Fold:
Amino acid sequence: MTRRILIAGNWKMNLTLSASLELAEGLKQKAAGFPAVDIAVCPPSVYVQPVAAALQGSAIKVGAQNVYFEKNGAFTGEISAEMLTDIGATYVIVGHSERRNILGESSELVNVKTHAALSAGLIPIVCVGELLKEREAGTTEQVVRRQFDGSFSGVSAGDMKKCVIAYEPVWAIGTGKVASPEQAEEVHAAIRKMVEAKYGKDVAEAVRIQYGGSVNDKNAREILAKPNVDGALVGGASLKVDPFIGIINGAV
Ligand code: 13P
Structure:
């Protein structure tokens, strides 16, 4: 089975409205040349709607960086999955390590957010990944397994097929220290085995597993060439047109 590569830009808490629109316009023109690759950008939530409007008519989809798990109500500052679909989001990043580590999000919270996203028809990009000290202690697979089990608890096989998993080793995020293609492939293969053990081969073959952590236009091709790497979740290098297009180019 062939999985479509998904290259997604996580803009994190960067850019102004005008810079977001300029980036979207620049990508829109150049991304047309990659029909075989799925492309998404995840701006800050306040820019999701204008960026989605700017990208209308292009193949680039828009995602949010977070979602709340309740449908509506007295949850000051939060945004529901329905609100995100309503303003044009297709994807939502759930459980990014910056949320897990800075804001203390647990896999239980990631799990209810994943369910909420799926119920609203959003595609969750669920992030997992170990800290440097966990890698050095040889516990990478254990940590990722715990995050995988917790984050996808109660998710049906049909829904699991729609999910995207992003393996983002925390030590590689924003550090310029990219995982080697072999290191990435090893963990990606282990994650696919976890999916297979829980959901069977069919689902495991369908689920896309992205790599994230210091991906740029120089290292993307080699990482994306690995059989279990189905895309990239890109931070810093997604904030400018040419490096991001270079990464997409590395996928073909
Ligand atoms: P960098 O590409 O800036 O390392 O960020 C990776 C990331 O966290 C994407 O979600």
Q: What stands out?
A: The mean pLDDT is 97.
